[in-house]
Amino acid sequence: MLNAPGCSPPPYSWTPKTKKPFHSLIQCARFAKQHSRAQTCTKEYGIDLVLVQETFLKPSRPRSCALPGYIQLRTDRTDAPLGGTAIYYKRSLHCCPIDLPTLSNIEATGCRLAVTGHGTLVIVSIYLPSSKSLLRSDLEALLALGDSVILFGDFNSKNRKWGCGIPNTNGTNLYKLSKELKFKIIAPPTPTHYPDTLTSRPSTLDLAISKGVSLYLHCIEEIDTPALNNIPDVIQTTDEIDSSIGALTNHIQKVVKRCSREVPAAVDRRKVPADALELIRAKNAALRHAYAYPTSENRCRARALQRRVRARMLEVKNEEWSNLMEDITPSHQAFWKLTKALKSEGLELQCSHTIPPVDIHHITRVEEEIRHKTSLEPRDDLSPVSLDEVQKLVKKLNAKKAPGLDGMSNKAIKCFPITFLSLLVAIVNACLKNCYFPPVWKEAVVIGIHKPGKPRDLPASYRPISLLSGLGKINEKILKSRLSEYLFSKGLIIN
């Protein structure tokens, strides 16, 4: 029994024994009346998963009884008052909702949870009204949701096996089904129901049923990023935007670092002929020698090898192109891409060395139109960003692009769960509302690429390339689409 100051005694809260003070689960009833108490318990004990029965929540109020830092899943009773079940899980958990089968007497809400060294675990919040019977078909349907299933909740089942003085029919059937369906019944060490009358004895109505679970519950996968759970549900100020971005970035960095592995670099990825490789090595050695001993003879030899390498690589590319043209078929991976490139209308213009004439009259007309339209009233009510829009942008990201200063690659962003994408939507909407672009997304990693044949001790010999944050690029695309829509609608840009 978990007794916290200011929230004791709860209707039922049970934490399994673990090797460290890590509270994984809390289960309670009549949540609508215990909401403030539950907030105190979850904040003080760092509860990861909250399973609720008899929520008394109404379908017309989908956002009621939210817990800060938690994702809410709920099943409200629609045909009668009272009842209902819900699950709250931390944002840092790898968790997602699941669809449950149609049940006859049991009310339930389920989720699928990632567990270290165990795969996935199905957890279901259960409520069986006292007026209804426990059916074998309901339990079979719930236990068939996965290989590892845990059912928590109010079964309204009494049996002496878990400390009830007087058994009832549901308790007898539940114990009998545990032998037939081969599941375990886990009961807390103290009663969970205390009647109002002094003549009635306390009983244990809230139980856990597990099947195919061979682990301690402290193995539930949690990312050690407490700041992620402190992000407000509604991001409003610029300080909250910066702190939310920092928490999300730190979270992803830890996950990527933990899940990454070193891969040996491939040798000679390009299938370059052996003679060409030897020529390239000789050219590089000559350049290093000329840089160390800058005599006219060494420089001439290096330039001669550079010309030979360029000529040989041009021959290799022409040979590869000829082989591709001879061997290509409609089933080849590059067939349709090559066909589209050859048929493009701009190919002739791209190959032409002539520059199209400049239309001075058109440029003047555009400038006059812009000066005339800039006197319009500014617009600050840009349409908010939706989850679907962000999902489409993430799907189009190039996974091979290099990450920015935050080290978050596009490949990691494409693996974001719905909870992280929802958080990104909230951050971007807050940026639009505050007309704010986070400074951390403006910072870039600048890499200098050496220009061939230029001295390495001069800054002008390098071509700089800036690597920006992938999340910042998504924000830029969203902002660009809304600004373009506005500018085109007002005629500030002539199409």
UniProtKB/TrEMBL annotation:
GO MF, one annotated term: RNA-directed DNA polymerase activity
The keyword Nucleotidyltransferase is assigned to this record: yes
Positions of the Endonuclease/exonuclease/phosphatase domain: 42-225
Keyword annotations of the record: Nucleotidyltransferase, RNA-directed DNA polymerase, Transferase
Pfam families in UniProt: Exo_endo_phos (PF03372)
InterPro entries, sorted: Endo/exonu/phosph_ase_sf, Endo/exonuclease/phosphatase
Name this polypeptide is given: RNA-directed DNA polymerase from mobile element jockey
